[in-house]
Amino acid sequence: MTDGLIVISLFLVATTATAAVAVRDPARQALVLSVLGLALAVLFTVLQAPDVALSQLAVGSALTPLLILLSVRKVRRRGQRDEGNR
């Protein structure tokens, strides 16, 4: 039973990591990165590392995608402002 859960979790991580690389839009990439963090947290839970899973949930699923989304938003606003000055 446990081996099956590990295989499923690894497949989920590999699939979401591939999707994160394949997506070209930075905003969507951040959302896929959040799903990847969640998949990694599930994998760490299955591997009986709950402390690492909680850290992954906090950093990989919430904080990092949030910072990426805020950065993309700031860059897009700056780009629109610069186009308006031309």
Main sheet: strands, sense, barrel? none
Q: Which stretches are low in confidence, meaning pLDDT under 50 for 5 or more residues running?
A: none
Structural class: mainly alpha
From the spread of the alpha carbons, the general shape counts as elongated
Q: Percent range for helical residues?
A: over 70%
Span between N and C termini? Answer: 63 Å
Number of distinct helices: 3
Please supply descriptive tags for the structure shown above.
0% strand, membrane, MrpA_C/MbhD, 86 residues, 3 helices, cell membrane, single chain, elongated, mainly alpha
How would you concisely characterize the structure shown here?
The protein is mainly α and 86 residues long. It contains three helices and no strands. The protein has one domain (2-84).
